[in-house]
Design brief:
The protein is built from 10 helices and 4 strands. The chain is mostly helical and 235 residues long. It has a two-stranded antiparallel sheet with strand order 1-2. It has a two-stranded antiparallel sheet with strand order 3-4. The longest helix is centred in the middle third of the chain and has 19 residues.
């Protein structure tokens, strides 16, 4: 059976578009995120007028709500990597320049390493305890992690962060910081690369204030506050 090839010159440039601007990690994240929303059954733009995804500096999409499922089938990073290898196999390597071939092979090695080492917190990302007041009991930090690490990344997570940061003043984070932003706290808490748009939409832009002025009347807020304080106030 004849192997299907594509217009190598044009498609190579399209596939690696802006690679040099982003660097390998952000380039990979952007492609992986776009693949997720393209295949997610319930992907939805936060602003109905948006037609294209928006990315943060790390390559994660900020303006689309989605879950990593196609119907009931999970979308995994392994599936994405296999798809990338499939696309790369269509290139006719004999038509590539030497620098393009080096880039292609480098990306293949990167994908192989990713496949062998699934997502881990980036070394520059702080541990959960690093967000907390240095005098706060580390055992309680671990208890908070175990209790809330599977919390939905949405309104409930927003309430948890608000209580810890603004009400109890136990954690510190900064808007748009490269290592200590809200998203980094969520990554450290959940030990995953979950997108944070579902949390960010409940906060004022670049602020730590919740948008809903009556949030304290919300049943989820009361439940999370009681569960959290039961841990914090242990003697």
């Amino acid at each position: 059976m004849m192997k299907i090839t594509i217009d190598t010159r044009l498609h190579f440039l399209g596939f690696f578009l802006k690679y040099e601007s982003y660097g390998i990690d952000v380039f990979y994240n952007r492609k992986y995120q776009f693949w997720l929303i393209s295949n997610s059954t319930d992907a939805e733009y936060l602003d109905k007028e948006d037609e294209l995804p928006q990315y943060d500096n790390d390559g994660f999409i900020t303006n689309v709500k989605f879950t990593p499922f196609e119907k009931s089938v999970p979308l995994t990073e392994k599936d994405f990597i296999q798809n990338e290898f499939k696309v790369l196999s269509f290139f006719d390597v004999e038509k590539l320049r030497s620098d393009q071939l080096r880039l292609l092979n480098y990306y293949k090695v990167f994908l192989t390493n990713k496949s062998n080492n699934p997502f881990k917190l980036n070394k520059k990302i702080l541990e959960l305890k690093d967000f907390f007041d240095k005098d706060f009991d580390e055992n309680k930090i671990q208890m908070i992690k175990e209790r809330f690490k599977d919390l939905t990344v949405g309104k409930k997570m927003a309430h948890l962060i608000y209580i810890l940061h603004t009400e109890r003043k136990l954690i510190v984070y900064y808007a748009n910081d490269k290592t200590r932003a809200r998203k980094h706290f969520i990554q450290a808490l959940t030990e995953s690369n979950k997108r944070t748009a579902g949390v960010d939409e409940f906060f004022e832009n670049n602020n730590t204030t919740l948008k809903d002025p009556s949030f304290k009347k919300d049943g989820d807020y009361s439940t999370i506050k009681n569960q959290l304080e039961a841990i914090i106030d242990i003697q």
